[in-house]
Amino acid sequence: EVQLVESGGGLVQPGGSLRLSCAASGITFTYYWMSWVRQAPGKGLEWVANINQDGSEKYYVDSVNGRFTISRDNAKNSLYLQMDSLRAEDTAVYYCARDRGALGFWGQGTLVTVSS
Amino acid sequence: EIVMTQSPATLSVSPGERATLTCRASQSVSSGLAWYQRKPGQAPRLLIYGASTRATGIPARFSGSGSGTEFTFTISSLQSEDFAVYYCQQYNNWPFTFGPGTKVDIK
Fold first, then answer.
1. Taken in order A53, B98, A26, A110, is the CA torsion positive or negative?
2. In chain B, at which residue ranges do the beta strands (DSSP E only) sit?
3. Which of B4, B26, B1 is nearest to B73 (CA)?
4. What is the separation of C-alpha B43 from the centre of its chain, rounded to a whole number of angstroms?
5. Which residues contact A48 (CB under 8 A, 6 or more apart)?
6. Residues 6+ apart with CB under 8 A from B40
7. Residue A76: which of A27, A37, A29 has the closest Cα?
């Protein structure tokens, strides 16, 4: 059974940092692109970033480019999202998902709240 | 950025009836279009990719069609478990973008 389990969310002040993790099981992690998608309260789904199988290609939506860093550790079957210079508008549930285009599996999400 | 729109915003359907949802892209996405189902408290579930290919394990009552800028998603005979929000998403051009969703509820 495929499982993607996010962790690391929480309350952080504006300007602060947070690192999200996603632990994958039930898949051959090294075969897949991986993605982060978020949904702010009352808003739609927004693709944040994705990363290829060996970490050599990374893409970011403009709103997070230069502040967020996606990475992966294939030995640990884990995906990460380092979020720096956080803003109120980054408040959202962050989902880890398998694949790059059509997302075949999603985690249950972790809530990030940016507030003073 | 490609903007995705969906219509209607809400569709009220009786069980057993057919539901047809529309998704439009602000520019061509070729066949790089996916459909997802989302129920309250759950993550989205992939139903269709490549505009018309059902994902693994998805029942045949779900179908998709279209290419370019106009896409249609159909549930041929609604079951009780199908009442949910449905999203389209393009993955032809980065950044990949989602539509706002169509809520299918019980009439």
1. positive
2. 4-7, 10-13, 19-25, 33-38, 45-49, 53-54, 62-67, 70-75, 84-90, 97-98, 102-106
3. B4
4. 15
5. A35, A36, A37, A38, A60, A61, A64, A68, A70, A81, A94
6. none
7. A29
C-alpha span between A3 and A25 (Å, rounded)? 5
Read off the pLDDT of each residue in B39-59 and give the average, rounded to a whole number. 95
Strand A92-98 relative to strand A78-83, pairing: unpaired
Enter the tokens of residue B13: 């359907």
How far apart CA B107 and CA B103 sit, in angstroms, is 12
Q: To the nearest whole number, what is the mean pLDDT of chain A?
A: 96
> Is the Cβ pair A45, B91 closer than 8 Å?
no
pLDDT tens-place string over residues A39-89: 999 999 999 999 999 999 999 999 999 999 999 999 999 999 999 999 999
Structure tokens belonging to residue B93 = 């051009």
Which residues in chain B touch residue A104, judged by CB atoms under 8 angstroms apart? 46, 55
What are the residue ranges of helices labelled H in B1-107?
none
At a CB cut-off of 8 Å and minimum separation 6, what does A56 contact? Answer: none
CB atoms within 10 A of CB B106: 10
The residue in chain A having the minimum alpha-carbon distance to the alpha carbon of residue B44 is A106
Contact (CB<8Å) A59/B95: yes
